[in-house]
């Protein structure tokens, strides 16, 4: 007489485990703070911001986007406009994609120590306002992974990984995903994820969106549903 209840309990547990719980809920808003990659992620129908929104909808989480990407922006500029472009919109979530321009702009960029200060303030101010951050590592600067720019970018991304762990916020490790994909493609004379070494092509946008959706808690089955909603492409 005790076997059936145990079997039923195990069945219920296994059924519940079939799908991961998505952190974002229907009716919530996600702000996407970033630079030209994020601006393009909203401006293009195949951009990663659009794909994240449609991927969530495919898994019954219908949310609204607050686009907050501006071309060329660095961490200091994102901090300056955080209240205006994100917090005042009252989102429940904010993705933060920042770092490429801080390094790529060279002497007009943002040194690592100041970048760390700016990003920490952005995350802390978001949390204080009741907005849950999702930190994205910066993608790549040229698809030649050994380039001087990518070498200079590495400590910026290591800081982001450490910060996300310390603050206990989700991390989408876009840089690791991009490096893995570029190495696997093994096409050193071709661009596989970007149009110009920095800005994303369709494949890059899909990979970026996949990383963000994983950070929101989607499992492989849910990611497959998202990708099916995106239609053709790689």
If you had to describe this structure to a student in words, what would you say it looks like?
The protein is α/β, with parallel strands linked by helices. Helix content is 52%, strand content 10%. A five-stranded parallel beta sheet has the order 2-1-3-4-5. Strand 4 (132-136), helix 8 and strand 5 (171-172) form a beta-alpha-beta unit. Helix 7 (112-128) runs parallel beside helix 8 (148-167). It is globular, with a radius of gyration of 19 Å. It starts with a helix and ends with a helix.
- What spatial form do the alpha-carbon principal axes imply? globular
Number of domains: 1
Q: Roughly what percent helix?
A: 40-55%
Q: Return residue spans where pLDDT drops below 50 for at least 5 consecutive residues.
A: 7-16
Task: Give the full name of the CATH homologous superfamily.
Answer: SGNH hydrolase
Order of helices and strands: HEHHEHHEHHEHEHHH
Record the strand order, biggest sheet: 2-1-3-4-5
Mean pLDDT: 93
Q: Please give the CATH class.
A: Alpha Beta
Features:
11 helices; 234 residues; 10% strand; single chain; 5-stranded parallel sheet; Rossmann fold; 5 strands; alpha/beta
Question: Quick summary of this structure?
Answer:
It contains eleven helices and five strands. The chain has 234 residues and is of the alpha/beta class.
Record the SSE blueprint.
Layout (H helix, E strand, L loop, with lengths): L2 H14 L12 E6 L1 H8 L4 H10 L6 E6 L5 H6 L1 H4 L7 E5 L2 H5 L7 H17 L3 E5 L11 H20 L3 E2 L1 H12 L16 H14 L4 H11 L4
Parallel strand pairs: 1-2, 1-3, 3-4, 4-5
Helix pairs in contact: 2-3, 3-10, 3-11, 7-8
């Amino acid at each position: 007489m005790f076997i059936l209840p145990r079997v039923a309990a195990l069945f219920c547990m296994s059924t519940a485990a079939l799908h991961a719980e998505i952190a974002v809920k229907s009716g919530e808003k996600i702000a996407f703070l970033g630079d030209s990659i994020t601006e393009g992620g909203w401006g293009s129908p195949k951009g990663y911001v659009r794909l994240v929104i449609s991927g969530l909808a495919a898994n019954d989480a219908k949310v609204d986007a607050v686009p907050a990407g501006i071309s060329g922006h660095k961490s200091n500029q994102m901090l300056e406009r955080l209240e205006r472009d994100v917090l005042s919109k009252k989102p429940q979530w904010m993705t933060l994609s920042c770092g490429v321009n801080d390094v790529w702009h060279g002497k007009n960029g943002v040194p690592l120590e100041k970048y760390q200060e700016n990003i920490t303030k952005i995350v802390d101010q978001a949390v204080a306002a009741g907005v849950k951050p999702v930190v994205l590592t910066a993608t790549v600067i040229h698809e030649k992974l050994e380039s001087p720019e990518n070498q200079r970018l590495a400590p910026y991304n290591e800081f982001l990984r450490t910060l996300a762990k310390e603050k206990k916020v989700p991390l989408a490790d876009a840089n690791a995903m991009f490096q893995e994909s570029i190495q696997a493609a093994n096409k050193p004379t071709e661009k596989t994820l970007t149009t110009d070494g920095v800005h994303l092509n369709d494949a890059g946008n899909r990979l970026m969106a996949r990383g963000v959706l994983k950070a929101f808690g989607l499992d492989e089955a849910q990611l497959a549903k998202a990708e099916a909603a995106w239609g053709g492409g790689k």
